[in-house]
Fold this protein.
Amino acid sequence: MGLKYVDEYRDASLAKQLISKINDVSEKPLRLMEVCGTHTMSIFRHGIRTVLPGNITLLAGPGCPVCVTAQKDIDAFIQFARMDDVIVTTFGDLIKVPGSGSSLAREQSLGADVRIVYSVFDATNIAKENPGQQVVFCGVGFETTIPTIAASVLTASGDGLENFSIYSANKLTPPALAALMEADGVEIDGFILPGHVSVITGTDAYRGTFEKYDIPSVISGFEPVDILKAVLMLVEQNEKGVPALENAYPRAVSDQGNTKAKIIVDQVFEICDASWRGIGTIPQSGMCLKDAFHSFDAAIKFAMDLPDVPEPKGCACGEILMGLKTPKECKLYKKRCTPMDPVGPCMVSSEGACAAFIKYSN
């Protein structure tokens, strides 16, 4: 039963049926944005762009958490690494992202104690094992990872773990969609909404944005059939002129989302403004620690308040995240900016559009 259920979403004949129907019903030129880095990689890996009609353009949006992290936040992580008796813990994608003049990888090579972790709870364990040192976790993520970070703060508080703190560069998805709809030059005819994020937020999280902008929106899973089904639904909405907010991933996503996870987040975090690479400050799009947990806020503990800084000269990562350019339209792509020597985060992250283009495109 389980295997058959999984195979349904990898069925080649069903995929062919969906492709055929998309080609049959699609007439209008459409620009559809996938708002998830995992979707971007899946679309490239399975060659989905190549089977869609030429009038449909898929755009990679601001769905890679590393890619949307502001330059000043990357610089803050590097400053932590340069401090005595501080251990910086981070997920692997972040370590090679260039700051204004360095990266965590470079600081590590110069002797800084920078450690890659696979869970924020690895960071709390490191803090327990090193009571004489401060441990900072670089909190970069969307609604998917915020609950575990909140849980780690509750655990650290309960255990009296005074040498653990987080720098929160966490962000919320719906405000970014609204910012895109308000941005000059951005043309989007529909959103392929993120699956993992939506498991936590539920469909209801997008209703305000959908009702304000009346834009076709479909939550999708990550198998080829999932994505093709979402594309078909968006095409049909556009062709009929009847925008809707639909859930094409009901096996994982409900209207309410994961209420237990949201309760944990509400205990620890409150909504605040946040700076997004390429977009700028988006009101009410970040998650900051509540006053009761300020002792676990690395920005407060270390008085870290760096100014905004411009992105690297010539880097089009911000425009790529907004669907204004493709990676190949960046002057640095595959020239000054490569996976071995990246200029922008879109080339570094495993969910970055530039990394996907260079891995799967000719």
Remarks:
- Residues 204 and 255 are 5 Å apart (CA to CA).
- The radius of gyration is 21 Å.
- The chain has three domains: 2-65+173-247, 71-172+258-301, 318-360.
- Residues 1-7 have pLDDT under 50 and may be disordered.
